[in-house]
Specification:
Blueprint lengths: L6 H38 L4 H4 L15 E5 L4 H6 L6 H10 L4 H4 L5 E5 L19 H13 L4 E5 L1 H7 L5 H6 L2 E3 L2 E6 L7 H6 L2 H18 L2
Parallel strand pairs: 1-2, 1-3, 3-5
Antiparallel strand pairs: 4-5
Bound molecules: iron/sulfur cluster.
Length: 224
């Protein structure tokens, strides 16, 4: 509907746009409030204290509007001690060699939301290596985070995280094909641990080709 100069229509459009912006703004604030409460609850969680035999230290990093949500298996002992995720040789390889970004970019909370299927270091197994992460954690916390964090893409690091979301799929197939998770694009990576030598020898196409495609997408999302 317009008058002879088109003013009524313009006003209606403007009003509709304005209402929509206010509604978006309100839902963003509501989501942010819910997310902050969730983050507080996660940081205070001690549910696995008896299982671990020490006080758990839940690790999560990033803001509710971070562009990329990276999900791995569980924090290492070093991360447990420092409170800083991927603060080790695996993290160096991940952000420098694979993502091609600086430490400042990786630890920018508006860029990356860094979390794990289990939020705490699960302790050392008697036979060596870390214990399996407690299964309860993802259902208790991670799935809620995935609903509240407004990321654009997911990156799953390692077989444990890949199996959690895609239990019927072959791990290597998941790595070499684009995936979707929670309605968003998702990329699966092998674990960047320096001990993970054989997989890379068996799959040279990962470093020759596949990681370049994923890196391109990360840089596009970060507007590099
Ligand atoms: S692993 Fe998860 S459920 Fe267990 S104490 Fe840590 S945050 Fe809580």
């Amino acid at each position: 509907m317009t008058d002879h100069k088109g003013r009524i229509s313009d006003n209606k459009c403007w009003t509709a746009d304005h209402k929509s912006q206010i509604s978006d703004h309100k839902s963003r604030i509501f989501r942010e409030i819910k997310y902050r409460e969730l983050r507080r609850q996660i940081r205070e969680c001690r549910a696995c204290e008896e299982l671990f035999g020490y006080e758990p230290r839940p690790i999560l990093f990033g803001n509710a509007d971070a562009r990329i949500m990276q999900i791995s298996q569980a924090p290492s002992r070093r991360v447990h001690e420092t409170g800083k995720p991927f603060n080790d040789a695996s993290g160096q390889k991940l952000r420098h060699d694979w993502y091609g970004i600086t430490d400042e970019e990786f630890y920018n909370p508006d860029f990356f939301y860094i979390v794990s299927v289990a939020h705490c270091f699960p302790g050392k197994a008697s036979g060596g290596g870390d214990r399996k992460p407690p299964k309860v954690c993802a259902g208790k916390w991670l799935l809620q985070e995935m609903e509240l964090v407004n990321n654009e893409i997911y990156i799953l690091v390692g077989k444990y995280a890949a199996d959690f979301f895609f239990p019927k799929s072959n791990f290597t197939d998941l790595i070499f094909e684009d995936q979707r998770l929670n309605g968003k694009p998702a990329y699966v990576l092998p674990h960047p641990s320096p001990l993970n030598v054989k997989w890379f020898l068996d799959h040279p196409a990962f470093e020759e080709k596949r990681i370049k495609e994923i890196r391109y997408e990360i840089h596009r999302i970060l507007n590099k």
